[in-house]
Specification:
Blueprint lengths: L3 H7 L1 H9 L1 E5 L5 H10 L4 E6 L21 H8 L4 E4 L4 H6 L7 E4 L4 H11 L3 E4 L12 E4 L7 H12 L7 E4 L13 H21 L2
Parallel strand pairs: 1-2, 1-4, 2-3, 4-5, 5-7
Antiparallel strand pairs: 6-7
Length: 213
């Protein structure tokens, strides 16, 4: 059976929790696509993905489905993971303000835009797992999981912390980050790290889902 080994690992009760979980993934690039793949293979099938981009040749070093150059990411990933719900939508401030996050048990933020990430955190911090800078790195041993307030060594996380402080927002949410020093100036990336971010997010999501009573 497809999920036999997952059920053996988690046990019937916890595996059933995974099967009933409802997850939203914002951005399905180098991090989000691996989080999607991991969750789907682990038995979570009620997954909504939101992205606006098409695949480009430069995505092929790090993104699942990226051989489909010129195709919408949401379209290709729906082919690969048939039970998911794709939303082709640009993530901007207006969208964050109007979108209903209530139906989802967990929200995975793998988006790129800092302002959008901050607004997502304000709106659904209790159910949020956020990815910050995974580019410019290649050492997976440096990846950490912490509260946003305990992140260190990452410029994007620092900017998010500072902006949240300015807004007098002091709530906790989980962040996957790496304090590894940048290895290049531009947007160089290695799937060893971007993919590992997605897999760590998946693990954190599973732990949170099965811990619920």
């Amino acid at each position: 059976m497809r999920y036999e080994r997952c059920r053996m690992l988690f046990g019937d009760e916890d595996f059933n929790k995974l099967q009933k979980a409802k997850i939203l993934i914002l951005g399905v690039g180098g991090v989000g696509s691996y989080a999607l793949d991991c969750l789907y293979r682990s038995g979570v099938t009620d997954i909504t993905i939101l992205d606006y981009d098409t695949y480009d040749e430069t995505n092929q070093n790090r993104q699942i489905g990226s051989e489909a150059v010129g195709i919408l990411k949401t379209t290709k990933l729906k082919e690969l993971y048939p039970s998911i719900t794709p939303i082709h939508q640009e993530m901007d401030m207006e969208w964050v303000a109007s979108f209903d996050f209530a139906p989802y048990d967990l929200v995975i933020d793998a988006a790129d835009t800092t302002k959008v990430k901050i607004e997502i955190a304000k709106k659904c911090y209790k159910k949020l797992i956020m990815s910050v800078g995974s580019a410019k790195r290649f050492d997976t041993s440096k990846i950490e999981v912490a509260s946003i307030w305990k992140t260190h060594g990452d410029a994007l996380a620092r900017k998010i912390r500072n902006e949240l402080k300015k807004a007098k927002f002091d709530r906790n949410f989980t962040v996957v980050f790496s304090p590894e020093e940048d290895r290049c100036k531009d947007k160089g990336s290695c799937v060893a790290v971007t993919g590992a971010f997605g897999l760590v997010i998946c693990s954190e999501a599973i732990k949170r889902i099965i811990s619920k009573r």
